[in-house]
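Notebook p. 47: complex prediction with thymidine-5'-diphospho-beta-D-xylose.
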Amino acid sequence: MKSILVTGGCGFIGSNFIRMQRELYPEQTIHNVDKLTYAGNLENLADLEEDPQYHFHQIDICDRTAILDLLKQTKPEAILNFAAESHVDRSIIDSGPFVQTNVIGTQVLLDGAREIGLERYVQISTDEVYGSLGQEGYFTETTPLAPNSPYSSSKAAADLLVRSYVHTFDFPAVITRCSNNYGPYQFPEKLIPLFISNAMEEKSLPVYGTGENVRDWIHVLDHCRGIDAALRKGKIGEVYNFGGHHELTNLEMTHILIDLLGKSRDLITFVQDRPGHDLRYAIDSTKAETDLGWSPQIPFEQGIRDTITWYQSHTDWVQRIKTGEYMQYIETQYAGRMKKDG
Ligand code: NAD
Ligand code: TDX
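Predicted complex, structure tokens below:
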């Protein structure tokens, strides 16, 4: 492809995806559309600032006029929609921005894409749209949608909108649904970067409930490779699940981080549970493996060590985030939740 447009490219997964695209396809031009919310950080792609094939546009995907103008002006062959409000806990505090960006923003992109006759649209979705698993079983692409949080229901709404455009307008879209990502540039509100940076500062690690909830962890670059495969090899109208085949309880993950950092397990504090906390996510990615020739490549043991090393060597990046808005969020989210020390 000559030109692609990525939304949310200044966030965690989008910035890793753009960097990977520049390495894999040097001839390709990339337009990055990002509103720069609290989670968007120009520093994440500072290394591409001088790259003539990379163009940044500070635009809200909900701004219909600005999006349509940009699409007409740049005429990308594909759009990859990463832009979203992405943190479950924030969606519990206020679901407004989630409905706005995740649902309305997707609608604006779909309409704009139709107007310019786009060739390919990829909606970056999540395994959370399937709801929660018990101790057994896996999510497949045919698992019924049963989102439980305002975040996941806004993502499911967007998926259904995409599905309806495929069905009604023959719109050329695919949807990807991935499990929990970890890796460099993840905003330190999410479990892994929050716990790494807290532990590095000898601050407590707030484990929700009993820490028995299970997540299926995948390195962000494996997710990005899957999205690239879906973009180039995915069949229109199809959904592709990606997972890391690496399930851990939150407490197991916390112990791994503490041990690799050489810190004390006394830092763990069990706090009040997340309301509606999904018990377990686990992905069956057979379809992506069979149809896209994709499989995760980065062993968890290697990936998590590299991630810790990245945070240890990017303390400035973390410290620049840990100011005003961030500290206020941490106060709102964690003050008053303390249950008992463990
Ligand atoms: P993130 O919060 O790190 O980044 C989101 C980016 O979107 C930020 O750069 C932000 O500025 C931008 N953005 C937000 N609202 C916008 C708007 N209205 N207009 C333009 N830009 C806007 O999120 P992430 O973890 O990188 O997730 C990216 C996508 O992947 C999301 O759609 C998320 O649902 C999905 N996803 C994430 C995970 C995960 O584990 N993090 C797993 C599966 C799927
Ligand atoms: O302080 C914490 N304590 C804690 O116990 C935080 C921030 C999280 N947790 C738990 C909640 C979850 O069971 O850790 C687990 C992981 O939490 P998050 O990092 O917030 O991720 P999760 O809620 O699982 O959602 C993530 O994966 C799917 C992403 O944030 C979503 O964007 C993605 O769709």
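Notes: Residues 9 and 15 are 5 Å apart (CA to CA). The longest strand covers residues 120-126.
Next step: compare against the earlier run before touching the bench.
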